[in-house]
Specification:
Structural class: alpha+beta
Number of helices: 3
Strand content: 15-25%
Helix content: 40-55%
Largest sheet: 3 strands, antiparallel
Distance between the termini: 49 Å
Oligomer: single chain
Order of helices and strands: HEEEHH
Radius of gyration: 18 Å
Number of domains: 1
């Protein structure tokens, strides 16, 4: 379960960034790190080892973010807010 949550975060990062070279590193004491493979076959750790929840938060915030989808109602509500405040 623990590594599934962490690997899910890494998979989302791979999709967002369109870079398949991100990987999950799990240390012997159960801490998680994010790594990026370099062209020479070596990997670079992008963060220090951390607990699961901290790792997932870090990975979800790392790199490009997916824009939030807005519904038509969200857009209309935003327009109404702008009219009433400005």
């Amino acid at each position: 379960m623990r590594s599934t949550k962490a690997s899910g975060a890494v998979e989302r990062l791979k999709r967002r960034s369109e870079n398949a070279y991100y990987s999950l590193v799990i240390s012997g004491n159960g801490l998680f790190s994010l790594a990026l493979m370099k062209g020479n076959g070596e990997s670079e750790r992008l963060c220090s080892p951390m607990q699961l929840d901290d790792f997932v938060t870090f990975t979800n915030g790392y790199g490009a973010q997916t824009p939030k989808k807005l519904s038509k109602l969200d857009i209309e509500f935003s327009k109404q807010l702008k009219k009433s405040t400005g």
